[in-house]
Structures are given as structure tokens and as C-alpha cells.
Amino acid sequence: MNELLLEIWTSVRRNKLRTFLTGFSVAWGIFMLVILLGSGNGLKNGVTANFGTYAVNSISLYGGWTSKPYKGYQKNRRIRMRNSDLEILRTEFPEIEEVAANAWFQTQTVTCGSEFTKAWLRGSLPQTGRIEGINLSAGRFIDEADIREYRKTIVIDEPMRRLFFGEEDPLGRQVRVGSSVFTIVGVQKGDAQRSNSSCYIPLTTGQLLYEANSPEVNNIIFTVQNIRTDQQMKEFEQRVLQRMAAEHDFAPDDESAIWLNNTMENYKNIMVVFAGINLFVWIIGLGTLLAGIVGVSNIMLVTITERTTEFGIRKALGARPSSIIRLILTESVAITAAFGYIGMVLGVATMELVNRYIVEPQGATEGPSIFLNPTLDLSVAVSATVVLVVAGLIAGYVPAYRAAQLKTIDALRYNK
């Protein structure tokens, strides 16, 4: 093995510039492949991060407007979801796991001491926090006791906490919302630099105080289970909409009466898009790498031409064709792997620098992201390494086979 590596080193030293230029094309090809894969990964991470801890197996229902007359009702009638719809979904559909609802109330003035601000109030159920993956930096979310006892509890956000309390602990403190006093039980994580505040209060409390105890809600959100195929999901959605049509007296085929948003379908569609992007990146990257492979193959053909007499002597001394093939393939793989590894390391280092000095500082605000963590995981690095080895074998196979087919007498008589 040492003799084999020594022969390869001697061959490379004999043609330094040619080997470097050829190897550079391989390094550039794998470098671009890594950059493209890292960028695609960063785009995927950024988009999927916007789902956060939001349950991807969730479905949301929003009231709309009817587009058809039905049972004496005229079209363009407003359909509003109600508290009673929650019980219907919870009891009549075994596929539904958890059910939550939200209602948005008018903007209220929130006051604490001499400070005040405007805030959106959102009445929610406890399940909302789990389904939507609401992250808290302190305290808790709305619980069942808050709902059952109509408690005046509130979950504030970071801008309000910063305005009213600075770095002090706000839990247990009170704020005035309109004419009512609420006790702070939690703080939602988020961008402390936002100008608009949004707070959560118990749904029942909000309906009683701000909607004259109206049972209407803006949306219903629920998670599903044991639905494994697209056909099953489609049939389930149709059953839900038909049941809501019967409850709210609109035509079963009126698609604008209630809007249904399936997070799972959105997530699957995004994953399909990124699978296509990933395939496209590999095709472009491998195409770039192919240019380097052709260069390595050419240099090996030139090497064989220059060493034809040497191979003839080897054969005359009893060397088998397999030993010559092994020599050429090893040299091809060595050149490809060495320069390819350099390109891969530079590519990974570049993406790490981009992540550390460009992407991470921009993501410090915790807002919606498009590009996040454009680094490569172990599986991609292993795949790139396999690509390097295979590329070296492909580049050296034709020259190796040609060298092995040389006739001993013709090789000895060869004159450069």
C-alpha cells in the first residue's frame, strides 16, 4: 500500500500544475454543491420554523358569507361560528382530538400606573396554547379554571411587559383593561420591539365583558388523529362541512360559507416544494461536479499515455491487468477525494460563517423567518463524501480499463 501511495505521489509531483487545475475544478464543483445544499436547507428551515410548535395536524374553521340562497335565506348571509359548534365537533367526530376557539375583541386601552398602551384582546381556550404552540417566557397560559370561573386573568406580551414593568417580574401584578382589572398570569415570548401589543384572556370572560355574553367566536381550531391517507382526510373535511351546513342552515355545497384551513395539507405542500428544490439543487450541483470529473478523467488519460512504456514493463514482469486498474483507480479517487474534501470543507465553513454572522443576528428578533440555519447535517456530509468516491471511480474507470487492455508488446514499443 505504501508503494502504491508513493507512486501516486510521484505522478502528482511530476505534473503539479495540471493536477492542481484539474483538482480545482473538482473542489469548485463540490464547493458549489455544498453551498447550494446549505442554501436550500436554510430556506427550508426558515419556512418550517414559521410553523414553530404549531400543531401541523390541525384544522381551522372560519365563518364566511353564503354564496347561494338556501331554505328561504338570501345569499351573502354572514355565517358565524358559535360555542355550540365546539361541542358538536368534540362529540360527533371521533377523529378530532382537541378543540379550541378564539374570539378577537375591540382594541382596548391597557393601563398600569402612569403608563398605558393600546392592545388587541384575544379570548382563547386553554387548548389554544397547546395547538398553536404559544411560547411563554414566564407564568402560564389560560387554564380551565379561568374559563369555568370567568376569571379576569390575562397573558401579556413582551412589549407590554417591557413598557409596564421593565425587567421586573410581572406575574401577579394587575393591569386595567378598559374599565376592568385583570391579573397577569403569563408573558408570551416574542419581539419586544413591536409597537402593537396582543394579549390573551379567557374566552368566556371576554364574551361576557365585551360581547354581551354572545356565544360567537371568530375561529375554531382542532387537531385530528388516525387519519392516514389523503382520501380519508378529504372525506373527513366533507363530513365536517356538511355538519356545519346543517347546524348553520347553508347549502352543503356552498364553499364560501365556512372557510377551512388544513395546516397538514399546507405543511405537506411545502415539503413537496422543498423536495423538488432539493432534487433541483442536487442536479445542478452534480452537473457542476461533472465538469471536474471530466477533467480528472482527461488527466488520467494523459497520464496513461505518458506511462504506456512503464505499463508495458510492468506487464512484461508479470503484473496483472487488475493491478494496473487498481493503480489508476486509486490515483483517480485520491485526486478527486483530496480536492473534493477541500471544497467540501470550504463550503461547510462558508455556510457556518453565513449562519453565525448574517443569519443568526437577523433572527434575534424572533419574528417570521425565511432563511434559517443554512448548515449541513451529517447525512448530507456523508452523501457528499460518497459522491466524491463515486466521482473518482467514474473518472478513473475508462482510463484504467484502457491501460489494462494495452498489449505488452505494443506498450514496450510505444514511442511518445
Task: Please tell me how large the radius of gyration is.
Answer: 33 Å
Q: Total number of β-strand segments?
A: 12
Total number of helices: 13
What is the assembly state of the chains in this entry? single chain
Mean pLDDT: 82
Order of helices and strands: HHEEHEEHEHEHEEEHEEHEHHHHH
Principal-axes shape call: elongated
Protein model, in words:
This protein is α+β, with helices and mostly antiparallel strands. The chain is built from 13 helices and twelve strands. A hairpin with a 2-residue loop joins strand 3 (96-112) and strand 4. Helix 2 (16-49) packs antiparallel against helix 9, helix 9 (263-306) runs antiparallel to helix 11 (321-362) and helix 11 packs antiparallel against helix 12.
Topology:
Layout: H1 2-14, H2 16-49, E1 58-63, E2 81-82, H3 83-92, E3 96-112, E4 115-124, H4 126-131, E5 136-139, H5 144-148, E6 153-157, H6 158-165, E7 174-177, E8 180-188, E9 197-202, H7 203-210, E10 216-217, E11 219-224, H8 230-248, E12 258-262, H9 263-306, H10 308-316, H11 321-362, H12 378-404, H13 408-413
Parallel strand pairs: 4-9, 6-8
Antiparallel strand pairs: 1-11, 1-12, 2-10, 3-4, 3-7, 3-11, 5-8, 7-8
Helix pairs in contact: 2-9, 2-11, 9-11, 9-12, 11-12
